[in-house]
């Protein structure tokens, strides 16, 4: 071992030019994995560290459309200090009525916030709102041209703006919002008169525990005690559940992309090592002639590979450490929480292990070939072909492969997904290898073209020593990766355009009083005679039992049963709504009068195994209604209309306090008049501008797309490196061919054309396979991992595939330059 180490280090002093590809491939793969893992750990670490501040409490109890009962409040008070807040949508209007905007109205009491600090921007008239005062978000001030001292109307109250909000500590924990925040105290909320029976609002009770209390355990006790009261219970350990889930989903996807890049890079590692050993052929032969054993040769070059791999992995880990800081600096306020910069050992250790195992797995075959081939035949390997690795090497390769699989599964948040990915990756690798073998056999069996260059291109695909197998695997993996990422990217970037219909409504109107619906419709027609409207009754309710089983007793709830999650929108209708289709059972008559019947959306029904005739109990404003399923509906959720998971038959809900919702479609230039007239006539009505909602969702998809593009760049770079490695591995054979062809009178242009034709044939064959495999992989990621509708822009995918294939052709031709430049006399002496 001492001799092997000495010789390995001495040879490395001459430079590591041949091993640069190994270093680049490992660096890219490890940096991608370490960066993704560190970034996700930093964001989740920040969520955990700031859990109390993000939630605004140790425990939060939230309920819709009501406040806590005296018994519930007493139970909360026994645990610690309580802060109560109410959150709802409301329109804020300038005092002169010239402009209005949908906002998130939030009532806070004197104890708020229990954790963190609430601050106002410089110039505020007071430190917090009291009485008929309001603190507003800067976005609202910009849109309505407000400043400290301005008057706004919210509901029936006229409020004085005391200043702009600088820091709202629990904003991240509040979740998605359709408008900027308006903070008021309970007196101002009461003055708005927006909280009425049937109004859509949420009451939150935040509890600060004594030091040392177990928040999670106490939250579970409260959830069990009030399991029939529809409380949504959180504790500081899961403050921002939606954000955490989104980060984890994105981390899982980006980790798979990084793992793909590393596996693709592994092919590059194998090609790089093979190319390196091909360049060292003379040195290896010389060492064997001088008495070096096969084991010594193996150790020398294994040590060299290990040294270079260790350096590349260390550099990749270093980059991964600083990714959270770089993302925080580049993204700025676009992130919901700033990544916590620090050292996160687990993703770094996992990434390093991935790199080491990948280097071992893919470098062993070329090392084994160098070890087994006798010195005399080292100069004939151009036509000899590769030999099967020995049994110990095969065992080591299997162990390394199993190690990668174990890491991918055990370290994943979704082990089943990772296992499926590995099986799919192995299947793709095997399929591409089989296709490469098939292309060689097919090329050998085809008739020889009369045209010499075409015959030469065809012969290059199947001759002894041809790199067709490696090129097909490298090219296939690269193009498949391009197609997969293009499918995911196009789904994210075109999601809005493909799901929002061309004639989407201008506004959604919420909380229209029952006795004011006709007046509201007349205001829409007054704003524009061409305005079209639809309106439906609106209530909130909770499914509390299915076929006699209480939802609170379902542990866990059935996957996909979204209608069981808290309050849901309800309505009643005599006719089947547009965009709905009955798939089981039948719709009730228009003049139905009888026991309560409901119609349920088909995906929710599938999750709960519901069929016509099954019983469901639904709580509406605390009153439990026993219903029977009359039909199952397929709902077209992309109509941008009002769609409901549960629709009641007439007769059951009309007597309950409720309101109406409406959509309004009218020319864009009439939006301002409708906004002003509705704000003046119906202070309690919320007008949601569809373009604003689309803009927020577009921003979210844009952030996801940016993250995917960043990961894709690493994967694409790895794919390019792999292709370069495959070409480099065949350099010696290419030089040999070029020299012989030059001696026979071929020009550089003819040689280049023959190679271009060879790569074109390979690209066409592999591109078809890549399109099929990449599209299937993209469909799975979009529909199963991100749970988004399928809507791929095939033009973008095909253009991406064409660019990848043309890029491959260009890289192949660039790789031919050394062969074209070789001087016959010098090349013949070295071959």
TrEMBL record:
Alphabetical keyword list: Cell membrane, Membrane, Transmembrane, Transmembrane helix
Domain named MacB-like periplasmic core: residues: 23-224
PANTHER family for the chain: INNER MEMBRANE PROTEIN, MEMBRANE COMPONENT OF PREDICTED ABC SUPERFAMILY METABOLITE UPTAKE TRANSPORTER
Membrane topology: Multi-pass membrane protein
Domain ABC3 transporter permease C-terminal: 257-374, 711-820
Entry GO CC: plasma membrane
Sequence intervals crossing the membrane: 253-277, 298-323, 343-368, 389-410, 416-439, 471-488, 710-730, 751-782, 794-820
Major subcellular location class: membrane
UniProt-listed InterPro entries: ABC3_permease_C, MacB_PCD, Membrane_comp_ABC_pdt
Name of the molecule in the record: FtsX-like permease family protein
Pfam family, one: MacB_PCD
Location relative to the cell: Cell membrane
